[in-house]
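Same chain as my last thread, 240 residues:
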Amino acid sequence: MKCYPVLICIALLLALLAACQPAMPTAPPSTAAPPTATPEPSPTPLPTSTPTPLPPQEFTVCQAEEPNTLFLYGGPSRAARNVLEAIYDGPIDRLTYRFQPVILEKIPSLSDGDVTLRPVEVEEGARVVEIGGRAVDLLPGVTLFDAAGQELTFESGMVTMTQMVVTFTLRSDVAWADGRPVTADDSRYSFELAGAFDYPALRQPLERTASYEAVGEQTVVWRGLPGYRDPLYVLNFYSP
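reply #2:
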């Protein structure tokens, strides 16, 4: 019975200690996060198809015989000339019985001034065209037309004759397959090449040519022998 007061004191002390403990913080109510939207999957791109290149087209030409050459100054046969028409663009075409420029700016003409007939002094021994149309050396006894159109027989000294001069101008937009522009020097080279081969079709015009010069990037000047008036002067341009 003596122990009861002690026990009562201990119980009161424990109750006081419990009352003095700080209150535990109350956790705030949890706020639910909004649901995250799931991104839609990106559509898979379809493979791009590579266009198939078209095969080269063939053009069949039927001829009676095979071409004997494809060299412009190799004495081409009729079959060869037909093929060369497809290889060489011009330089001059014939349409409706008239010459049409292809790689030239225009057809030279007397009215435009790119064809001229000039008086020239010719001395003995020079190359001329006599009255019959042959290319000869000017020697005593040669019959010719002077610059006035008078027929005379040369004796000695000098005589004034007429010389035809034709100026050809290439188009500036004409180019080779590699993009390099076609120039007057290319035509000049063709003239020199033509003279290196014994091609009968070129023998007469070459014999009656005094000079063939490139005088600019696009300009070629043909001069005929004195006394030679060529009605087909436009054909004296040599294809590059």
